[in-house]
Amino acid sequence: MTYATDRVHEEIAYIAYHFHWSLEDILDLEHRDRRRYAEQIATLVTSATAQR
User: In terms of CB atoms within 10 Å, which end of the chain has fewer, N or C?
Assistant: First the structure.
């Protein structure tokens, strides 16, 4: 099974936007770690939005 290319690009853009990491740094992450960072960012964004 392969992970959809569009989904990988979404994760990369999301992490780069929020953490300001380079493409190279993000691509060096294992898939599992990249997903975890994306999920954690989403949690932080949701929490910050709810507090407004």
Answer: N
Per-residue buried b or exposed e for 16-50, using 16+ beta carbons within 10 Å of the residue's own CB: eeeeebeeeebeebeeeebeebbeebeeeeeeeee
Q: What is the pTM of this model?
A: 0.81
Q: How many residues can be counted in the chain?
A: 52
State the angle between helix axes of 5-19 and 31-50 in degrees (0 to 180), rounded to the nearest 10.
Answer: 60
Residues of the chain with pLDDT under 70: 1-2
